[in-house]
Amino acid sequence: MAESGEAYPGPPQQAVEKKKNVQEFNSNVKSNLREFLTVAVKEYDDNLTAEVEKYWLETSAAITNGSSVVRLNDRVRSLKDKWADNYRQSATKDPKELSDLDKIKQELEILKQQTDKTKPVSEMDLMKKEIDDLKNVLGNRYGRGNRGRGRRNFQVFSRENLTNYEILVLAKGLKFIPSPDVKYIKQNLLRDFDELGRKMRCKYHFSDKTNADTNHPFRIKSGFKPSLANNTIENYLFATKMEICRLKINKVRNNLSKHERAALKTLRSNNNIIIKKADKNSSTVVLDKNLYIKQTLNFLNNSICYEQIHEFNTNKISETIQKMIKQLHKKEYIDDITYKYLANNANIRVGRLYMLPKIHKINHEDREKIKTNKDFLKNIDIPGRPIVSLCNSPIEKIGQFIDHFLKPVVSQLWTYTQDTTSFINKIEQIRAPDDIIMCTFDITSMYNSLTHDEILQAVDRAWYKICRNKHEIPLPPKKDFLRILQFILCNNEFEFNNLIFRQTCGIPMGAPMSPSLADLRMFEIITNILDIFPFKDNLALLSIYRDDGFILFNSKYNTSIQSYQVSYPGMQNF
Fold first, then answer.
1. Which of 475, 457, 479 is nearest to 466 (CA)?
2. What's the pLDDT tens digit per position in 77-100?
């Protein structure tokens, strides 16, 4: 340090040279930036010269003031995006100037320009992946090969114009889970571990006790928190919890880009479209909301199975059910645990109807017309499968109670097929000759075609089978059982678009007991048809899943079987 009274010798030579180098670097950056902007403006629009000069002066001042390179890159990219948008808008004014392929190439080129070396490697790779995904989704518009596989994952039947990023998000499917926020990961992990500790203490607490209630089908979870367990369990829980608290949570790589997350928010807030899962497959379908509501209301108003009512009867239905189960409990036809489960009717609400679009029934010609002219959507009727969600409705729990006694009987039917795996196992066990005949059948609107009377009669005829099975809970008398079932069938109310409807015929698709009731009645119909079927002895396999059937015949009667039809009352030809 200089002594008092002496002149300051000035900065060291190293600092002077560093400042000089920074000034030279800034000068080079300014020069290169101006040259780049001049070339870029010629590429997009010569009319932007004045704007370039203004932008260069602003950026030059930012460089002089010590703006970071990252900010400068952001400024350059924002200007490039702005010019690119202006260029696309001017190009799309005359459709003859650019083909669809050229327009998409322009958009892809902009995405490629954004993946420059100034971005982190992970983000650059993510944006490159977006380009590849976009090619796969939009299919053969980009060329041949395996392009277009993502197109099958979603279908658009809407006049709404979706952006490329919205298309990318939809193509991932409804089961896609975005990366969670790491902010609360440790809290959630500790909460789950506390629940594990509670269950371990419960196991220890009840280890020397015989408690038959634990296997009860309608036991309500109590959330019981016992006192501390033995030292071994408590030491393990304490040590493990301390290790979890010391865990370092690594940042999870985001499986959605910032553009895709923004597109996801836009799709959620778009009130002009409805996004549903397609019937019969896992495709995602985008529909116009107004068209979806209109076609669903036409279905409800034109069907003999539904009637519109003016007010909710939710509380009345719940009170009637409570009276019935209370009487059964007094007569000891229902045990205490089942009664507590059925009597717990807090937060009840009316059912809700929604439609799963049957896009597989739209012919190819209509699909092509929709692609060229979206207004053609007004002229087609997209069929749908009506599903009534009865979660927390008054008839949900009592329906589960009824279904508990029906399931064992249905699973014992010789035509019963539980799921796809069960069907494959049946097929693998068949040693069929090469000339065997294979055929399938389908029952149209099976759930709505079954009347309430024939369903009740089918359960009445199968009552001896229900009694023959062993049940974990008491079985009510047949008279009370059928009375409860009839009340459920006649009081299926639901809401759609703020309108209230009641189902007057058939069984609701979505109710807990509906699959068992349909299987039970269809088994009777099929066996009645087989009784008059002359080729019954030549059946190699008959497998039925809900309204679909699969049959293998001996080939000896090939011609006769192909021309054979059976008519059944209330059903189409078999």
1. 475
2. 666 666 556 655 554 444 444 454
Report how far apart, in Å, the C-alpha atoms of 428 and of each of 290, 315, 422 are. 47, 51, 10
Strand partners, 357: 384
pLDDT of residue 573: 43
Pairing of strands 548-553, 154-157: unpaired
pTM: 0.70
Q: Which residues contact 57 (CB under 8 A, 6 or more apart)?
A: none
In sequence order, which residues have a C-beta less than 8 Å from that of residue 303 and are 6 or more positions away?
A: 448
Strand-pairing partners, residue 274, are 287
Residues of the chain below pLDDT 70: 1-152, 209-214, 555-574
- What's the pLDDT score for residue 493? 93
Domain map (residue ranges) of the chain: 16-149, 182-245
- Angle 451-453-459 (CA atoms, 0-180°, nearest 5)? 105
Which residue in the block uniquely carries the two structure tokens 């719940």? 318
Other beta carbons less than 10 A from residue 414's beta carbon? 9
How many Cβ atoms sit within 10 Å of the Cβ of residue 303? Answer: 17
Angle formed by the axes of helices 314-330 and 336-343, nearest 10° = 170
Alpha-carbon torsion angle 39, 42, 46, 51, nearest 10 = -30
pLDDT digits (tens, 9 = 90+) for 158-214: 888 888 888 888 888 888 888 887 888 888 899 999 999 999 998 888 887 665 556
Contacts of 31 (CB under 8 A, 6+ apart): none
Our measurement of the distance from residue 535's CA atom to the centroid of its chain's CA atoms, rounded to an integer in Å, reads 44
Q: Which of 511, 563, 518, 569 is nearest to 544 (CA)?
A: 518
Name which of 507, 463, 516, 511 is nearest 489 in CA terms.
507
Query: What pLDDT score does 461 carry?
Result: 95
Residue with token string 């000069």? 53
Helices (H) and strands (E) in the chain, counts: 21, 11
Measured CA to CA, the distance from residue 491 to residue 146 in angstroms comes to 52
- Both tokens of 8, joined, read 């300051």
pLDDT score of 84: 59
Structure tokens at 386: 């009506």
Question: In residues, how long is the chain?
Answer: 574
Give me the pLDDT at residue 152, please.
Answer: 54
Of 489, 517, 488, 484, which Cα lies nearest the Cα of 504?
489
